[in-house]
Fold:
Amino acid sequence: MLDLNFTKAVDGLLPAIAQDAATGEILMLAYINQESWQKTLETGKVHYWSRSRSKLWLKGESSGHVQIVKEIFVDCDLDTVVFKVEQLGGAACHTGYKSCFYRKVQGEELEVQGELVFDPAKVYG
Structure:
């Protein structure tokens, strides 16, 4: 099994970027540890480490918006990954947008880009 360089990881966590395999759009940045890395490789579904909940997290376990791995790229230092994914449900962001990067800096303001894909209150309660 391919091992990443978790010795360089802060708190055992490496950054992981999720990118839409079809469009190239950056969907989100999250973190993986050894357990989530292995689970992702085993299942073909992206697993992360939830820093807020301090637990393994299958992306989409609550919303159904699972990320199916299409390709994985690893940087030159083996300490950052890019998951090229098929984003089921149309949204990666818990706020209901396709991408977590849905706000653009315009001068001193943040301008929302795109439309809501789902209502987070209805999905998460």
Observations:
- The chain is about 10% helix and 35% strand.
- The beta strands are 14-20, 26-32, 47-50, 55-58, 67-74, 81-87, 103-106, 109-112.
